[in-house]
């Protein structure tokens, strides 16, 4: 609960505060241990620039490289996501930041822009260069224009009025589920920050740990914030969220392969029947694991990234733990800190000094352990059904765990090679479809865009199914790893805010996992086989016709003595003699004679053969 | 195409119309003086690239008055002030002892003061004016001769041999300068080793020191300016880094480190988006414990990276402030302005910037014509060499456009309309480059014949075997019958 409230703060309240203070930079780290030895870490970096400075190209904390792209492509609001892994709702509860700062597996991008198609293609190409991602593959076939799923976070209308532009801003959305997010995307992400990972909480971000996490997502969000009738500022919020497996992260970097402990060091569960002197069932360790920031992240925080005007900022780190849990601070200087009634601790980072949090092994009382997880707004899962290379089906389950009716927007952007049969689209269970937006696909030009507004009854499950046909691709359209299958982007589900509880017009988001669709794949050596086979057939035909044309037919007597034939005969004689000698004795002598007889006969045969096809080559071949 | 590539299509010649006024006199003695100066200039063979036309002008004095009234903002027309490349103003001044000449800073005007009591006749005045004019155009003549050297546009007698010193200085200027572009992006970056200063009043400082220079250049190119602040900038690991010198109590940066000083891997110096190159200016503020930081050899604090930009070190003064004020930045920006003129290829002489800019226009137009024609030549050679290459219509269109624009540029040059010549030459060059780097052709250039052979070998191989064998047999038989006959 606290998690989500705290993280909606920057979106609403903070932006109002910083509207006055124009060039600003703040950062915040939220840590929260999750069940099963997991640790959630949410990094937030926010920089702002006044819109006038942005328009005249003078940058201080706002990254120039990104601003240039936004200006060139006339982008008013940008959202970029890099995501890896799956948020496990069953064991971790509801999503951080209400799912607003996460994306589907791979890369996801949506933006409100002034221009039309060229602006979008410029944007994806430039971002692809800036973030070292294959965003340039987001072409018209992967771009959709959602209607209900996204709401601008910034005050776009005010901005348009300020810039005295009349045209309406357009929302474009693209997803790349195939993209593997890795260190090469983190480095440019960190470069956009004023402290570049050298100081402040960003010094904890290390590619080895971040991409080893169970779930991680990096987001870049740029939005204009205008005070009514007043000035505008442009705000960039960069967030990194991850769930680390504490044990896994604490493995030493030199020998990351887990090895069994010596049997003396294992605490055995002796109640098991098969317990013996050399077999042991390890007992689950009691209490919380001991860990520290430097052991989990590989290094401590290297001082604060305190820039001018950061005095207003209260705390850099919020650590949400039960109040009984002991937390030790390792730092050379005294750290301003405070503890809230619920047990959350907040810390302020020291200047130019390392900072580390240390949690010893501890067995907590039962009251602290029974911390309940917050229910996510909705559970969703999506699978492919069917068999064979021709048809398939999509099956989505949506479960409302709350005792009130919820309205959701379900967005699917499908690639063109998955052709849904819309007449099979069916919604069963306690829910009803209120609206549907559907853009049919065009082969190789446009994918399917399907957006549904669904109402789900309290505590019930809704099932959405449809069938589809798999297209057959052209030979050159297959990727090098064609047999792996083709990624189908995640479905995006927006849970609309209920009218009585409208803390934000955004609502909350969740995304299903991306799917892997096997398509009929040809044998890629086929063209070569065809070339070789046809060539052989043609050559055979050509050879025989040619031979028929040029060969002369003569009698045996007319055949002149052939030098090669003589050599071959002599070699054969020699072989036969040696064979006889090896077999040995009198038998060998008899054999020798026999050999001679055969030889004579062969010669006759050879002559006849030669008579038939006459050529030196043919004769040689037959022998 | 080949006419241009071989330099036969255009004879490069630069007419210069020079206005001449003489405040005291009527039209006839002025005309006499003008024709004398003209014949003197033409008699000498050293400025063979130019045709001088000296025009007696009685209205110049008025116009200059009017120009003064209209204010100094009329920067765009400076190069072609009243259509003249240069105006010579002869002023009768009884107070001067000897005849003297001076160039005005922002106008292409040469003021010649002479005392009629001391040298009355125009016979001594004419050679003086002629030699002054020659002095003004000497440097440009050298530069253009150097450009034309070793190109097919050189005609015998037109290009004189240059002394090695002049040549090396021209070469240095050419290697330093950016290739000509219609738009340049200027990026001014403040890099600090520590977290402060984290702000600078760059906007104000740029307005004061760089903007006037850019206004001068606006007739040639356009500029976009942006600034950024980058904190916690570290040195690249590939350089040794500054060494502390006990004797002078300074941190010294070795010459070998200068080339690697800009940490390209970590410093975000992305080039600007859109067409045109980016010129980077980096102001580096070392951290307190590494200052003062100076260059080991010269003790200076700034250097220029050819065709990239300029770097400057600003050692923090005693008080460490969060913000660099416009006053602090003034000397910095003046150095950047110098570096910018060098990077744009502005010649070092003559003294008047407006004359320098107009000579830069001529130089740039010439070099664009040369490069467009050599690209055309290369394209012609390529299409002859790779006969299998398919040439799309767009290339043909671009080549036509290039030739048309080159013709126009040539005419403009010969008629003395240098700004239009530059514009046409720029379009020609752009079109030529576009034709040469046509994406569909680039792919074909790298498609070798061997690939086709690889596909056909499975067919041709088996078919060749019976053919070869039959040929061998026939040959042997022929030899056998010959032997029999013999």
Could you explain how this protein is built, in words?
Chain A: This is Subunit of the glycosylphosphatidylinositol transamidase complex-like protein. Chain B: This is GPI transamidase component. The complex is a heterodimer of chains A (623) and B (486). The longest helix of chain A has 29 residues, at 585-613. In chain A, helix 3 runs antiparallel to helix 5 (117-131) and helix 13 runs antiparallel to helix 14. Residues 1-20 and 586-623 of chain A have low confidence and may be disordered. In chain A, the strands form five sheets. Chain A has an eleven-stranded mixed β-sheet with strand order 5-6-4-3-7-8-2-1-11-14-13, sandwiched between helices. Chain A has a five-stranded antiparallel β-sheet with strand order 20-21-18-24-25, with no helix packed on it. In chain A, strands 9, 10, 12 and 15 form a four-stranded antiparallel β-sheet that branches. Chain A is an alpha+beta fold and 623 residues long. In chain A, strand 20 and strand 21 form a beta hairpin. Chain A is built from 15 helices and 26 strands. Helix content of chain B is 47%, strand content 17%. In chain B, the strands form four sheets. Chain B has a five-stranded mixed β-sheet, sandwiched between helices. The longest helix of chain B has 37 residues, at 449-485. With 486 residues, chain B is of the alpha/beta class. Chain B contains 14 helices and 15 strands. In chain B, helix 2 links the parallel strand 1 (14-22) and strand 2 (50-56). At the A-B interface, helix 3, helix 5 and helix 12 of A face strand 8 and helix 14 of B.
Strands side by side in the biggest sheet of chain B: 2-1-3-5-4
Low-confidence stretches of chain B: 60-81
- Characterize the biggest β-sheet of chain B: 5 strands, mixed
Radius of gyration of chain A: 37 Å
């Amino acid at each position: 609960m606290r998690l989500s409230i705290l993280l909606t703060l920057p979106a609403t309240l903070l932006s109002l505060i910083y509207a006055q203070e124009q060039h600003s930079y703040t950062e915040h780290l939220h840590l929260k241990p999750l069940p099963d030895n997991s640790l959630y870490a949410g990094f937030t970096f926010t920089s702002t620039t006044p819109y006038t400075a942005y328009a005249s190209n003078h940058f201080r904390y706002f990254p120039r490289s990104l601003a240039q792209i936004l200006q060139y492509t006339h982008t008013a609001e940008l959202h970029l996501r890099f995501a890896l892994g799956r948020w496990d709702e069953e064991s971790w509860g509801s999503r951080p930041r209400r799912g607003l700062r996460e994306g589907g597996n791979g890369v996801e991008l949506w933006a409100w822009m002034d221009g039309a198609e060229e602006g979008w293609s410029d944007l994806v190409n430039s971002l692809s260069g800036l973030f070292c991602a294959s965003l340039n593959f987001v072409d018209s076939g992967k771009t959709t224009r959602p209607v209900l799923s996204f709401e601008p976070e910034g005050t776009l209308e005010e901005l348009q009025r300020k810039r005295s532009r009349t045209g309406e801003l357009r929302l474009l959305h693209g997803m790349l589920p195939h993209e593997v997010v890795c260190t090469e995307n983190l480095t440019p992400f960190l470069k956009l920050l004023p402290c570049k990972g050298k100081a402040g909480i960003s010094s904890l971000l290390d590619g080895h740990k971040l991409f080893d996490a169970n779930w991680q997502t990096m987001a870049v969000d740029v939005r204009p914030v205008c005070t009514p009738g007043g000035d505008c500022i442009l705000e960039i919020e960069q967030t990194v969220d991850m769930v680390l497996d504490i044990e896994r992260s604490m493995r030493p970097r030199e020998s990351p392969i887990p090895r069994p402990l010596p049997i003396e060091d294992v605490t055995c569960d002796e109640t098991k029947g098969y317990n013996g002197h050399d077999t042991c069932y390890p007992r689950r360790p009691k209490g919380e694991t001991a860990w520290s920031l430097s052991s989990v992240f590989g290094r401590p925080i290297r001082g604060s990234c305190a820039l001018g005007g950061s005095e207003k900022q209260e705390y850099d780190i919020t650590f949400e733990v039960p109040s009984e849990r002991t937390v030790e601070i390792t730092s050379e200087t005294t750290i301003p800190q405070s503890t809230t009634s619920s047990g959350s601790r907040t810390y302020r980072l020291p200047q130019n000094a390392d900072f580390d949090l240390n949690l010893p092994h501890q067995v907590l009382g039962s009251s602290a352990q029974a911390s309940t997880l917050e229910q996510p707004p909705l559970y969703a899962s999506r699978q492919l059904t069917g068999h064979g290379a021709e048809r398939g089906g999509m099956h989505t389950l949506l479960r409302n765990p709350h005792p009130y009716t919820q309205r959701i927007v379900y967005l699917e952007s499908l690639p063109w090679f998955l052709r849904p049969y819309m007449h099979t689209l069916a919604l069963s269970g306690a829910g009803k479809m209120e609206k549907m937006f559907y853009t049919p696909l065009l082969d190789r030009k446009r994918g399917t865009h399907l957006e549904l507004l669904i109402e789900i009854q309290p505590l019930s499950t809704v099932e959405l199914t449809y069938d589809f046909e798999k297209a057959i691709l052209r030979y050159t359209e297959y990727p090098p790893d064609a047999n792996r299958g083709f990624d189908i982007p995640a479905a995006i589900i927006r849970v609309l805010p209920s009218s009585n509880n409208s803390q934000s017009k955004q609502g909350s988001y969740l995304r299903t996992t991306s799917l892997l669709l096997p398509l009929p794949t040809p044998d890629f050596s086929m063209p070569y086989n065809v070339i070789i086979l046809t060539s052989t057939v043609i050559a055979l035909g050509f050879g025989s016709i040619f031979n028929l044309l040029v060969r002369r037919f003569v009698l045996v007597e007319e055949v002149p003595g052939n030098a090669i034939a003589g050599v071959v005969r002599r070699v054969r004689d020699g072989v036969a003699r040696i064979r006889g000698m090896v077999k040995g004795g009198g038998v060998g002598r008899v054999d020798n004679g026999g050999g001679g007889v055969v030889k004579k006969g062969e010669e006759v045969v050879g002559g006849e053969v030669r008579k038939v096809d006459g050529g030196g080559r043919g004769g040689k071949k037959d022998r | 195409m080949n006419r241009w590539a071989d330099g036969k299509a255009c004879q490069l010649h630069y007419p210069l119309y020079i206005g001449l006024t003489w405040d005291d006199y009527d039209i006839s003695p002025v005309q006499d003086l003008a024709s004398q100066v003209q014949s003197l200039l033409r008699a000498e063979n050293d400025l063979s690239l130019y045709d001088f036309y000296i025009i007696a002008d009685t209205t110049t004095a008025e116009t200059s008055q009017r120009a003064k009234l209209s204010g100094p903002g009329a920067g765009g027309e400076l190069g072609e002030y009243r259509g003249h490349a240069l105006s010579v103003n002869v002023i009768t001044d009884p107070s001067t002892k000897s005849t003297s000449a001076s160039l005005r800073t922002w106008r292409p005007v040469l003021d010649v003061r002479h005392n009629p009591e001391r040298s009355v006749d125009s016979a001594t005045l004419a050679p003086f004016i002629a030699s002054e004019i020659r002095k003004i155009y000497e440097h440009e003549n050298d530069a253009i001769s150097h450009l034309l050297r070793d190109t097919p546009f050189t005609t015998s007698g037109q290009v004189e041999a240059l002394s090695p010193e002049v040549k090396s200085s021209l070469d240095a200027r050419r290697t330093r300068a950016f290739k000509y572009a219609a738009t340049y992006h200027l990026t001014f970056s403040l890099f600090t080793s520590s977290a402060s200063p984290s702000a600078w009043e760059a906007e104000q400082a740029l307005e004061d020191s760089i903007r006037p220079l850019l206004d001068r250049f606006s007739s040639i190119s356009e500029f976009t300016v942006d600034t950024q602040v980058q904190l916690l900038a570290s040195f690249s690991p590939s350089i040794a880094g500054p060494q502390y010198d006990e004797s002078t109590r300074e941190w010294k940066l070795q010459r070998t480190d200068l080339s690697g000083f800009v940490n390209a891997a970590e410093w975000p110096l992305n080039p600007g988006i859109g067409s045109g190159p980016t010129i980077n200016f980096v102001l580096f503020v070392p951290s307190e414990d590494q200052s003062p930081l100076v260059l080991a050899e010269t003790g200076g604090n700034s250097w220029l990276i050819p065709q990239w930009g300029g770097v400057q070190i600003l050692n923090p003064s005693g008080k460490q402030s969060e913000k660099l004020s416009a006053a602090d930045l003034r000397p910095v920006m003046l150095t950047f302005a110098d570096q910018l003129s060098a990077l744009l290829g502005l010649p070092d002489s003559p003294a008047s910037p407006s004359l320098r800019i107009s000579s830069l226009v001529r130089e740039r137009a010439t070099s664009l014509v040369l490069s467009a024609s050599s690209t055309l030549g290369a394209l012609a050679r390529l299409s002859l060499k790779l006969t299998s290459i398919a040439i799309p219509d767009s290339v043909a269109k671009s080549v036509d456009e290039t030739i048309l624009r080159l013709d126009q540029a040539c005419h403009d040059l010969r008629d003395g309309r240098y700004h239009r010549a530059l514009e046409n030459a720029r379009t020609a060059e752009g079109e030529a480059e576009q034709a040469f780097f046509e994406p569909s052709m680039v792919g074909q250039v790298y498609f070798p014949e061997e690939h086709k052979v690889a596909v056909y070998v499975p067919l041709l191989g088996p078919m060749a075997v019976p053919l070869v064998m039959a040929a061998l047999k026939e040959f042997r038989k022929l030899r056998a019958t010959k032997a029999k006959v013999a």
